[in-house]
Amino acid sequence: MESGQEPKSWDELYTIDLMPSELFLKFRKQLQGFRVGLNFEFYNSPINECRGKLVLKPLSDDRRWKFIYEPIHHDVRLVSKKIPITKFLNLQVGIGHSFESHAIGWKWKLTSCLGGDGMSRIRNKTCVGVVPGVDLRFAWRADYVLPEFTGAVGTGEASFNMNSGRLEASLDRIETILTHTSSTSNPSPKLDDVALSP
């Protein structure tokens, strides 16, 4: 702790929020080399909203794209897979059309599991297989400031200072994924994380 300050309590050093702001229910079926998905996405923060999405992507291991149609908003998008730029940095691009506004546009996004604004951040997704065809995926993040120790001798400053650091962790999303596969279909490929899409 810094000289002249009271030590912080444990409650001030960390916060953990286990109430997810997003709940997804995904239905998936494999058809002739493609996976068709129907997503129902419920958001309770910052606004209450429900979205439906139809998602089509190839089943091959090197799948490079996914097609997304949102019937409520009348939007269609074609989104690339994450393209590794460095070990911790990925680029993703997409093009879309809005039937309501009759506009075509594209967007790009650089993503990383590390980084943040003012704090260091870890973001990740953890997938747990419940039974064959049923998976749960949890999206979580942790923002942290590491403890810092400083000191000085002969400068008039305190010989030892400590900043305790801080941890803020939250469970942001829970996804229930139901996959229908026939006995002749290939096994479901590894779930991937896509930042611009569900």
The termini sit apart by: 43 Å
**What is the chains' assembly state?**
single chain
The string of secondary-structure elements, in order, is HEEEEEEEEEEEEEE
Radius of gyration from the alpha-carbon trace, in angstroms: 22 Å
Query: What's the main sheet like?
Result: 12 strands, mixed
| Arithmetic mean of pLDDT | 79
Which structural class should the secondary elements be placed in?
Answer: mainly beta
Number of helical elements:
1
Q: How many domain regions?
A: 1
Beta strands, count = 14
- As residue ranges, the low-confidence spans are 185-198
Summarize the structure.
2% of the residues lie in helices and 56% in strands. The chain is mostly beta strands.
